[in-house]
Amino acid sequence: MSTLLLKNARLLITMNDGRETFPNGALFVRDNGIEWVGDSGAIPAAYQTAERVIDATDKVVLPGLVNTHHHLYQTLTRALAPNDGLFNWLKTLYPIWARMDGEAVYVSALIGMAELILSGCTTASDHLYLFPNGAKLDDEIRAAQELGFRFHAARGSMSLGESDGGLPPDSVVEDEQAILHDTRRVIERFHDPQQRAMIRVVVAPCSPFSVTPDLMRESARLARAYGVTLHTHLAETKDEEEFCLETFGYRPAAYAEQLEWVGDDVWWAHAVHVDHEEIELMARTHTGAAHCPCSNMRLASGIAPVRRWIDRQVRVGLGVDGSASNDGSHMLNEARQALLLQRVLGGASALTVEEALWLGTRGGAQVLKRDDIGSLEVGKAADFIAFDLNQLPYAGAQHDPLAALIFCAPQQVDLSVINGRIIVEDGELRSLDIAPVIQRHNQISHQIING
After folding, report:
1. Do the domains 65-367 and 3-64+375-429 match in fold?
2. Considering the domain 65-367, what is its CATH architecture?
């Protein structure tokens, strides 16, 4: 049984229901759970000594950030098709991604996860929907296990190729029965439904323009039979809306409802183009959303109605989205962009700094259906991070550390603890020697881009 005491934090942000904060904050961890949170001057005698004591002087401490949508393999293809919208961007990249194999998926996952961890992320859901040349979901799960990263592995799929009216080339689609068979396999092998689970599996057909209605329905039924969550891209662009109207006779959200893809076990990536009635549908059915502001800006997809979601109590979290449509994986930057975009739409009061941080913590936990992460409270998983306020970009912002995190240039964490284990200390990743991984990653990237 291991114990850890963190104390003397300049500010400890709990993100509990009362949104409590503790100047001079402290917390005590036993094994992988939080046992006490409060003021450093009031640490109970039983917690004064611990196997590991961390002095958090001049640091702001908060729950680990939760990323609700990513495509880790895309770290291999950053900054390609820089001036295209979604459909043309995908058409450029599909043939390149078709050259990946299991090693490419594994190495790109290590890179993407390391980048997320250093940005303050402690839990992420990744949407892997291509499995060329023997690649498997297992490859990125192995990366998460080696890093000590809390991970929701979304078994994506594409079955509707160009010859059948879909967007992806036939070379990257799979047989639907094979998809369902492998989805069962990974759920049975890897999904852990227990509290504080490190690995969970999500059922995640890619999008309306890359899978058939039959696969959507069968995937939903499979997920519910196993009690796992469901995820897909939806209403990301006007092109997608037009595709759904022409192909299926429904707007994307109505199409999803027809296919049993609404409910408190479902979240949609993006949902940029949803109208009032569709927001009401999301609220009524408790369907969640992954808001990915940087990717939506990069691909000129539009601005999601986050303020209206919050006002209608729609579950919403943040996602960095794919590293080829964001080109970075920094969760604080995503929170900052979410805040700024909503203010463009609705003025300075459209989103507060506290709400932006809530989206990245408690909001993300709610989207992933986790009640054991996202806040620093007794009984929650010991996932927390700390930023050093003595860094240059925070100079002049010492009066409000919380606002500094959101408004100032996003920095890397000084400390990250995941499931009670120190993963980043003094700003350095402790669970992976990253230099040789970067070297191999760049070699693989060169190989698949240049054929």
Report:
1. no
2. Alpha-Beta Barrel (3.20)
3-64+375-429: CATH topology is Urease, subunit C; domain 1 (2.30.40)
420-442: per-residue pLDDT in tens?
999 999 999 999 999 999 999 99
How far, CA to CA in Å, does 146 sit from each of 67, 136, 139, 239? 19, 16, 11, 39
What's the rounded Cα separation, in Å, for the pair 9 and 12?
6
Burial class (CB in 10 A: 0-12, 13-18, 19+), 111: buried
Q: Which of 70, 71, 3, 65 is nearest to 31 (CA)?
A: 3
Q: What angle do CA 383, 386, 392 make, to 5 degrees?
A: 155
Please choose, from the candidates 241, 242, 178, 176, the residue with its C-alpha nearest in 3D space to the C-alpha of residue 213.
176
Specify the pLDDT at position 414. 98
Q: Where are the domains of the chain?
A: 3-64+375-429, 65-367
User: Mean pLDDT, 10 residues at a time, over the chain (451 residues)?
Assistant: 95 98 98 98 95 98 98 97 94 96 98 98 98 98 98 97 92 96 98 98 95 97 98 95 93 96 98 97 98 97 97 98 92 98 95 98 98 98 98 97 97 98 98 97 98 83
* 383-426 pLDDT, tens digit each: 999 999 999 999 999 999 999 999 999 999 999 999 999 999 99
Distance from CA of residue 186 to its chain's centroid? Answer: 20
The pTM score is: 0.98
How far apart are the C-alpha atoms of 127 and 233, rounded to whole Å?
Answer: 10
For position 323, what pLDDT does the model report?
87
Return the pLDDT at 347: 95
